[in-house]
Design goal:
By secondary structure, the chain is of the alpha/beta class. Helix 6 (152-159) packs antiparallel against helix 8 and helix 9 (222-236) packs antiparallel against helix 10. It is globular and about 60 Å long. The chain is built from 13 helices and nine strands. Strands 1, 2, 3, 4, 5, 6, 7, 8 and 9 form a nine-stranded mixed beta sheet that branches. The chain has helices at 17-25, 45-50, 68-78, 97-107, 129-138, 152-159, 171-177, 188-198, 222-236, 244-268, 271-280, 286-295, 300-314, and strands spanning 4-10, 32-39, 57-62, 83-86, 92-93, 113-121, 147-148, 167-170, 203-214. It has two domains: 4-218, Spore Coat Polysaccharide Biosynthesis Protein SpsA, Chain A; 221-314, no CATH class.
Length: 315
């Protein structure tokens, strides 16, 4: 039985998936199984996977799309290793990732997961040092020292310092909290870290760049923004923290999310729902709210151009 289970959920990424797979096969630590779970790809991914002859690779193919978190759950359910990591099909692990993170879990059985820092790369696999530095600072990793994180809930909820694709978990610890929520498309990673912290699990931060996170055009666009904001609203409504400080942050983020979602819905023509959410989020930004409500009076056909002009002015 392998020591480490590595899961790569995929969907129509035949151009990038091989880079992710090769990053696993090139690990200096080789006692692993690789589970590729395919959420109904129609781009030849099945043919690609048939060419791999390594018996450590398992391929789970769903013949129709079952959704992001459900696909991830199928990979997790198939895992047999003591340790587990899930990273996306457009990202890559550095060769020493498993060796360095698993050593920490081996040395201290009380640690439930080990998170690292990561590089930012582009579509051509080129590392961007400036964006990497900015990203690490933005998400609070520059302020974290190596070792067990004392204020874990604050770090994973407020700062969101841990990135799930750059984290090796003790699988049993994740089993105990249920891994990903079913039927979620976004924010499932934030939610998992919050539930681990609320369950009293122990996280360790290793300040090394041991993963590569790819930034590319497929991650952008209004068609992705609306589902993301809907899931983020659901995520933020899932908790009520005992800490007054954390609860204040949660409510502020919920109001901001409702406002942004409302504006997007108004822009795309879902006027009534959009207005309702804008009013709920109005306390976050009164100016944005009144602007959005004003634009909602325009004909649907011209709203997109009006919102574009507004974004350019603010940009």
């Amino acid at each position: 039985m392998p020591k480490v289970s590595i899961c790569i959920p995929t969907f129509n990424r035949i151009d990038l998936l091989p880079f992710a797979i090769e990053s696993v096969l090139q690990q200096t630590y080789q006692d692993f199984e690789l589970i590729v779970c395919d959420d109904g790809s129609q781009d030849g991914t099945a043919d690609l996977m048939s060419k791999y002859e390594d018996n450590r690779i398992k391929y789970i193919r769903h013949h129709q799309n079952i959704g992001k978190s459900n696909n991830m759950r199928s990979g997790f359910d198939a895992a047999t290793g003591d340790y587990f990591i899930k990273f996306d099909d457009d990202d890559r692990l550095i060769p020493d990732f498993i060796a360095e993170t698993s050593t920490i879990l081996e040395q201290d059985s009380t640690i439930d997961f080990v998170g690292t820092d990561h590089w930012i790369i582009d579509i051509n696999n080129v590392r961007d040092e400036a964006k990497t530095e900015e990203n690490s600072r933005r998400w609070g990793r520059k302020d974290l020292i190596e070792g067990v994180v004392e204020n874990l809930l604050e770090v994973v909820f407020v700062n969101q310092s841990f990135q799930i694709g750059a984290t090796l978990f003790r699988r049993q610890s994740v089993v105990e909290v249920g891994f990903m929520q079913p039927n979620w498309q976004n924010c499932e990673d934030n939610d998992l870290f919050v539930r681990l912290a609320l369950a009293g699990k122990k996280g360790y931060y290793l300040p090394k760049l041991l993963m590569e996170y790819r930034v590319h055009a497929q991650q952008q666009g209004i068609n992705r923004a609306i589902p993301y904001l809907k899931d983020k609203q659901q995520y933020l409504q899932s908790y009520q923290f005992d800490s007054e400080k954390l609860e204040k942050v949660r409510l502020q983020r919920l109001q901001e999310t409702q406002l942004l979602l409302g504006l997007r819905l108004i822009e795309t023509g879902e006027t009534a729902k959009g207005r309702e959410l804008v009013k709920k989020g109005k306390s976050f930004s009164t100016a944005k709210a009144w602007t959005g409500l004003g634009l909602s009076l325009l004909p649907v056909g011209v709203r997109g151009k009006a919102f574009d002009v507004l974004r350019r002015v603010r940009g």
